[in-house]
Amino acid sequence: MSGTYRAIQLQRFAETFRAGAAIVDLDMRRPCPGELLVRNHYAGVNGIFDTQIARNAVDYVKIAMPTLTGVEALGTVEAVGDGVVDFAAGDAVVTTRFPGGYRQWNIAPEGHFAKVPEAAPEWLALASTGVSAAMALEHVGALRDGETVAISAAAGGLGHLIVQLALLRGCHVVAVCGGRKKSEFVKSLGAHRVIDYRAESVTDVLAAEYPDKLDVAIDTVSGTIFDAFLDNVAPHGRVVVGGAAADLEGRPEIVTQPRIAHKLYYKGASVRGFMNGLLADHWPEARARVFALHAAGKLKVVFDERNFTGLEGVFDAVDHLVSGQSMGKVIVDLRASQS
């Protein structure tokens, strides 16, 4: 097997992913024992993470330059290495392992992949973001039926799936998002209370309507939204930190106020960090559950209305997601860039 394929490589730390990365040619090779050779069809976009690694602002991932990029991809197996028995040529597979995403082909250990029913983008979203939603809400958030759940960035790729999973458990859902279009979208999913932070104060609404009533609050934004969730957590409630989109620099914000211990102790409440990469042992079970819900028509995947194609489209997709304009899951169709 000879020839080359294209991939996005981060070559320098820079203010933006676009400024630090470039498309490069890599040598094609046959899979070694225990490896798969996969032709990528679609890539899922994690623009916040991409921007933070470009700025060297992700403490938990040490980046050695240069590095390939991208986390999520779905494709088909083209060849398997010696000793591989669970995969065969033609299988549709997904990976959520960095850096398997932003490249035409992926050659990696078989343990980096999971089978999906077909090479359709819905299965990429479910195997990556759907699993993350289930892990954040049910594993880390320890959700119980009928609880009150608050979700920030509720119209995003992760948020719109968390909204649906919470509703399936009979929960009262409070969804936070920005703008009328996103608000209408989240309402269409069935959220009971939608807070448009561009038109209302999240702090004021929660204090007036949900004082000490949030059993589970999942925040991926940080800043004042995290503060509002924390202030209104219920007795024995759980505030789940799944990101900090408002802090692309990855530097702790210095806040002068009482320690959160005083807000937690008398309620028996907790703040819990959600890092999906640390929960890989639980992914297969979560994947089976979200796949079954989707197959039964109970969990739908909504994609952002903009279409991004080819490796060149990854840069536009990252910019779009970071801009805060995206709604639903952002993906890139890589098939147009393959030769």
In words, what does this structure look like?
It is a single chain. The protein has 339 residues and is an alpha/beta fold. The protein folds into 2 domains: 4-126 and 301-337, Alpha-Beta Complex (Quinone Oxidoreductase, Chain A, domain 1); 142-273, NAD(P)-binding Rossmann-like Domain (Rossmann fold). Helices cover 29% and strands 24% of the residues. The chain contains 10 helices and 15 strands. The chain has helices at 17-20, 47-54, 121-140, 159-168, 180-189, 202-209, 224-231, 261-265, 283-295, 310-322, and strands spanning 4-10, 21-27, 35-44, 67-68, 72-80, 92-95, 105-109, 113-115, 148-151, 172-177, 193-196, 214-219, 233-241, 270-273, 331-333. Helix 3 crosses helix 4 and helix 3 (121-140) packs across helix 9 (283-295). The longest helix has 20 residues, at 121-140. The two termini are 14 Å apart. The mean pLDDT is 94. This is Zinc-binding dehydrogenase.
SSE blueprint:
Blueprint: E1 4-10, H1 17-20, E2 21-27, E3 35-44, H2 47-54, E4 67-68, E5 72-80, E6 92-95, E7 105-109, E8 113-115, H3 121-140, E9 148-151, H4 159-168, E10 172-177, H5 180-189, E11 193-196, H6 202-209, E12 214-219, H7 224-231, E13 233-241, H8 261-265, E14 270-273, H9 283-295, H10 310-322, E15 331-333
Helix pairs in contact: 2-10, 3-4, 3-9, 6-7
